[in-house]
Amino acid sequence: MGKTLRCLLIAIVAAVPVLLAACSGSGGDQTKIRIGEVTRSIFYAPQYVALSQGFFKEEGLDVELTTTAGGDKTMTALLSGTIDVALVGSETSIYVYQQGADDPVVNFAQVTQTDGTFLVSRKKIDKFDWSMLKGSTFLGQRKGGMPQMAGEFTLKKKGIDPQKDLKLIQNIDFANIPAAFSSGTGDYVQMFEPQAAVIEKEGKGFVIASFGVESGLLPYTVYMTKKSFLTKNAKTIQKFTNAVYRAQQWVADKSVDEIAQAVIPYFTDTDKEIVKAVVKRYKEQQSFATDPIVDEKEWNNLQDVMQSAGELKQRADYKTLVDNSFASKAIESAKK
């Protein structure tokens, strides 16, 4: 064998592990992680950005995303091991804790920091005052859910007793609320996006106030998992949180048009102009958290809201149900 050929073969053999490592890094060596989102919503834009921009993949994660449709179903899926991580309201972790769970559910990365619902009126109101709601029929959200609690908290702040001053309707499923309002139920409705923007575009209602602005900062939607999973899969959770933080920074830095373009693959049945309008509304009211830290002051505000709604047996310890170590490391890592 000639010297030139021998050198060429040695070079090829030396290069193979490098090539294989490169290939495995792009997909073959990825860790699978299953996310269950409580609903499909533009409110969770950072999550879809992390997916569409490849941030999870670059961290070596193969994400399987399912919509688990409702807080109860999402938590059941998490506790049963059907999913690894839940994106859901942080109040659900408190409910599990109140039931005396041996393996508590821990919040480790915040995604949204305000309520995501809006007050929609059937009639256009140029000069709205909250006192106008007194004596009206109000189509609210499910009792015990964070939207309803934030809604009631806001109403009480405005001097309205939800149980006495309104005809309060709470027995309509979340998915059917827009249709119920469109068909004539209620003078006012508490509604998520993009349904509020769609109703507005169709001329069937008008957005007149934001419950997110009025109820203050909250750890509204958070990634959480069982403490046992967190302990056994710390490296995976760190990679996951790194990707989330990158997406949050991306959303904070980019324009409404760019964000809408990034999330639109997950909302193929929604008009692009509606997507842009919703992103703009949430971005302007600072609903998207800019880092994954679950702030203690916001956690206490959440429990104030729950307590006001009569849904809190006892206050949950912040350090027991929140672990910010992964969020802190993600922020520090990004600085290097």
From TrEMBL:
Signal peptide: 1-21
Highest taxon in the source lineage: Bacteria
GO CC terms in record: periplasmic space
Pfam families: NMT1_2 (PF13379)
Keywords: Signal
Localization: Periplasm
Family: Belongs to the bacterial solute-binding protein SsuA/TauA family.
Protein name: ABC transporter substrate-binding protein
Organism: Paenibacillus oceani
